[in-house]
Design a protein that fits this description.
The chain has 457 residues and is α+β, with helices and mostly antiparallel strands. The protein has 12 helices and 23 strands. The strands form 5 sheets. It has a 7-stranded mixed sheet. The chain has a 6-stranded mixed sheet with strand order 10-11-12-16-15-14. The chain has a 6-stranded antiparallel sheet with strand order 21-20-19-18-22-23.
Length: 457
Amino acid sequence: MGQVLRRALALIGLVWCLLSLNNLVLAGPGSPVASGPLAAGSIKYQFAIYYIGTPSQAPMTVFRSQLKLTPNAPSVVTTIPDEPTAALVRAKLDDSVQEHYAPPSLEMLHYFGRGLTREQAVAMQAARHALILDFAHPRSMSSSSYRLSLQLTEQVARATGGLVWDEETREVFTVDEWHKRRLDSWEGETPDVLKHTVIHAYKGDKLVRAITLGMAKFGLPDVVVSDFPWSSNRSMGNLINLLAQAMVEGASVGSKGFYDLDIRSIKHASVRQSQMTTLKAGSEALAHLVLVEGTPEDGDPRNRLVEIRFDRATGPDRYAKQEFLLGSLFGTEDSVAYVKHSEELLAVSRAAKARLPALREALNNGLQPGEHLLVKAPFKTPDGGQEWMWVEVTAWEGEVIRGLLKNEPVQIPSLHAGQMVKVNQQEVFDYLRRDGKGREEGNETSKILQRMQDAKR
């Protein structure tokens, strides 16, 4: 039979134990979250307003004035109780923030400064004053009190010429950016959670861990996903955001930590439509999740954690389950082409092979966050042919490349997408290198394959 070649994936992309669906048994860290709603009984969070130079007006005076003008304003207290029964706020002007409440570094502002100019970021390093605002309220007042705290913080910052710090998400905002992200995104009493949280994703030994920051402002646990490849980062991020949105909208977990995430059930219309319009072939818009108590790591938010596991998905191991669940939720653009190797195709492949030593060196020296490398390699079919598929590289030692299979095989029953496989460098046909911003290098053979397929139509 002819060889099977695959065009580059439009990769979907952001678990540990095997389970029996008839008798669920969780091994390792984490136990199923308790059934019912996930919200805590009380909610506490902190904002701050930093000042570059001297505030344009006395912050405490403006704060008190705004409270008087605000209907249903929180009550001012000097101590936040453990279990507040009403909306409360504690305000403190710190005139020695370099010692007590140091502003975020320039490096941090590069990634988490929202709307700031370079000059503002530099000047913020010398800030001496900050108004620190601690808010608290019971769960029953979650939506209205949280929104009111956003408005009050904006009003004081705008009147006094400050920059707003969100302690939970570790971001700094100009006042206009705060309004755009935090206040313009609501539909009625429902916020777009994406605009109120962030996701930190980082690589461990070989794979990636992602975690939200900011869910404590809704009295909810932050969401974790562990051990997935960088190529799935975007899809994992979408999965996390959808679950966070469902949680804020009142999602209730079933027994054994089971939760069925249905994109069509998201109440926030803009969030729902933005996901539904991007679904690909094979999408069911539905994910059968298992939610367990998360295990905190250094740098995590000081909050409860819920970890997503994929044990209810189809597949023989955790990687296959991840691939299956993301594919069934969002769909895929995996495609198959049956072609013969032309001289033009082979010439482009030889050029790609010449780049492999440099790519191996780059990988072993450490790729940048979000950057990942795939290689296209042959796998033997039962009838003696070859099926060419993409592998996301996790290790490259000498001539041996190890990684996760990114295609679902058509002719090889013993393999599956997400499986850890090993290929020889000499057999690699092409490569694809992606950075964390979507830029690509390589995969030149795909252009020829596309042209060949177009000519057949």
